[in-house]
Target: DUF1996 domain-containing protein
Amino acid sequence: MAYPVNNDCPASHPVPVPKLRQVIRYPANGDPARFRLASGAGYTMHGDFFNVWPVAEMERRVRDCIRPIIKCGVSGTP
Model:
């Protein structure tokens, strides 16, 4: 993996990988400064992605969501 340079993949890493972001919200009461996960701060979390979607649906999501950088899966969007 490598970060893009001027929005392009470096020659050593020619295959672009879509950026996926997972947002999780916890219902909590109290002082947010005192909130802590068992693993530490929120950035200590991770998620795994398994590409098992039907091919046609994955192609649609890449075309309609990832390439144009549109939030998908949220109410009112594709």
In short: The chain has a mean pLDDT of 77. The two ends are 29 Å apart (CA to CA).
